[in-house]
Amino acid sequence: MKKYLFILIAGLIISGCNKKTNEAIPVDISAEITLDSTLIQKTGADEFGMKHYVIAFLKRGPNRPADSAEAAKLQKAHLENIMRLADEGKLILAGPFMDNDDMRGIYIFDVATLEEARLLTETDPAIQAGSLVMELKPWYGTAALLLVPDIHKKLEKKNIAE
What we know:
Elements: H1 2-16, H2 37-43, E1 50-60, H3 68-87, E2 91-96, E3 103-109, H4 114-121, H5 125-128, E4 132-142, H6 148-153
Antiparallel strand pairs: 1-3, 1-4, 2-3
């Protein structure tokens, strides 16, 4: 009886996951994988398909604007700086956290050193104003992240800085 109950529950879970909005992107894991030397060179991937980055944790700073118009102006400038850094190829990934905690978001920089990342973060108007502060950490992750910005451009209908 437990076996049939398990099968029924598993079937319900699987059928519930087949909604159009929750469909997984099909991936054929049985296909033979061939290395792409051009892609390896383009991304700077090591033998594990990985590379070094700097990740920045954006945290709530001590000087948050009290005026909503000033806060909106600062946010717009912050987003424009994000877009500039992304267009320069220095910022690979950026995004806010979805709660209202002191940890506000992350950046992943394609730079070699913490110092270079620090100099880039200092160009952010929200950092300059003290509305945000950043904690920088060296990070080792997939070199495939370098492909995300081009893929993202094929998905965005509206620019975040608009």
